[in-house]
Inverse folding.
């Protein structure tokens, strides 16, 4: 078909014109978005109103953020302490123990980052009080070299030790699985004592916590070192915050992650995040292949292909245990729903008045895990931020991603200066799409003519 002229009759079924729609798109032609300067500096009255913490926000924070954080931490720790012994002959015994250990490992990971961020914020406060001018600054290359050497000397042996222990357990459990099939076929039973999985203690989890703590603390030191360069010879006058907004953002993330952490979330992550990650990896691989194709020299092509093959062989030999561990985690996560339901099987067996203290905690923790599967708020927030920064191509490049993070850091800094560290921590998880809309969009009576560039 040839091209046809499109007229206003395209809206005839709704009895309207295009102008009736245009005056409401993004609020209409009289509505404009604030710039970061207007948002946080020259026209920040609305920003203060939106982020200001009141009694209602404190109650919401305690009930929806702090209580889940405490309840989920307590339930995971208690389940790990009271974990059953390893019995290969018992149905779902392996999946129960795996779920308990993996969730305890996840809690250890988040808690180590949580403690690291708290110590970093305390360090920011102490250094600012101790050094009014010329805060300690280390050469960035020396600091990077020192942190890398320390990480290699401490992290690599601990990582190898942990991977070896986990790998031994996986090999032994695979052997038990094969023997169990043989026992079923031969109609025999065997008793297994002193299994490596049953003897698993706190050492691997302590190792994981130390690794994550060192990783986070060195990264935080690097951030503070760059900050001291930016404020060199500048005395603190209250116009900028002494606390790193990344640490506060990380603290908020750790608290929310611990409050809603369970292996059930891996299923949600697999559905929403895994396709995006696979797409990004394929794009990086494709870009690398395209760069190799651009090489015209045959010798360069051979060298590139050889280096790539060598890298892949080395990566496979090192990453294979990690892939096995991730495979186990994925497998356990899909069994976790069955195990979680079995943990609250007392609901149909006991009257609610006969429940013990532990039963109430387990039931509340189960409800919390189910409710935390709803990721609509975070996805809506990401969608709005992507809409604001992605441009006409609807894809964020590196510069746009950095600008997005800087804006969030600026809002955190503004909130700390306005209402303090603790109230900012309370306000941060309660900023959603509605709050962003209130902050970014001018009301008609607020419109202030901008100066011509």
């Amino acid at each position: 078909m040839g091209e046809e002229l499109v007229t206003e009759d395209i809206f005839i079924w709704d009895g309207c014109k295009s102008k009736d729609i245009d005056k409401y798109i993004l609020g209409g032609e009289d509505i404009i978005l604030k710039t970061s300067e207007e948002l946080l500096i020259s026209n920040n009255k609305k920003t203060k109103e939106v982020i200001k913490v009141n009694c209602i926000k404190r109650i919401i924070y305690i009930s929806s953020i702090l209580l889940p954080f405490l309840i989920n931490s307590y339930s995971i720790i208690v389940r790990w302490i009271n974990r059953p012994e390893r019995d290969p002959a018992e149905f779902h015994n392996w999946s129960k123990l795996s779920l308990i250990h993996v969730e305890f490992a996840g809690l250890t990971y988040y808690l180590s980052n949580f403690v690291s961020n708290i110590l970093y914020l305390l360090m920011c406060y102490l250094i600012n009080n101790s050094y009014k001018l010329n805060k300690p600054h280390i050469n960035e290359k020396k600091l990077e070299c020192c942190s890398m050497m320390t990480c290699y000397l401490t992290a690599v042996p601990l990582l190898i030790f942990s991977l070896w222990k986990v790998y031994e357990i996986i090999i032994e459990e695979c052997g038990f699985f094969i023997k169990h099939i043989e026992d079923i076929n031969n109609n025999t039973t065997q008793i297994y004592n002193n299994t490596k999985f049953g003897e698993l203690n706190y050492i691997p989890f302590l190792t994981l916590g130390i690794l994550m703590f060192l990783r986070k603390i060195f990264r935080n030191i690097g951030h503070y070192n760059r900050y001291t360069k930016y404020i060199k010879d500048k005395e603190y006058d209250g116009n900028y915050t002494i606390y790193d907004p990344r640490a506060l953002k990380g603290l908020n993330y750790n608290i929310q992650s611990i409050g809603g952490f369970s292996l059930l979330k891996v299923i949600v992550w697999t559905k929403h995040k895994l396709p995006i990650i696979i797409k990004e990896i394929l794009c990086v691989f494709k870009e690398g292949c395209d760069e190799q194709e651009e090489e015209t020299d045959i010798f360069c092509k051979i060298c590139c292909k050889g280096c790539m093959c060598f890298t892949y062989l080395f990566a496979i030999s090192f990453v294979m245990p990690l892939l096995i561990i991730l495979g186990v985690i994925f497998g356990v996560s899909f069994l976790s729903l069955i195990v979680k339901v079995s943990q609250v099987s007392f609901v149909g067996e006991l009257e609610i008045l006969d429940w013990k203290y532990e039963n109430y905690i387990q039931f509340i923790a189960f409800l919390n895990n189910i409710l935390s599967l709803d990721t609509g708020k975070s996805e809506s927030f990401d969608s709005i931020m992507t809409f604001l920064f992605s441009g006409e191509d609807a894809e964020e490049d590196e510069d746009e991603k950095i600008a997005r993070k800087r804006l969030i850091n600026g809002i955190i800094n503004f909130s700390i200066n306005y209402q303090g560290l603790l109230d900012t921590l309370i306000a941060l998880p309660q900023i959603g799409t509605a709050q962003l809309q209130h902050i970014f969009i001018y009301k008609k009576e607020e419109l202030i003519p901008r100066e011509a560039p």
Observations:
- The longest helix spans residues 140-186.
- The mean pLDDT is 76.
- Residues 8-261+372-446 form one domain.
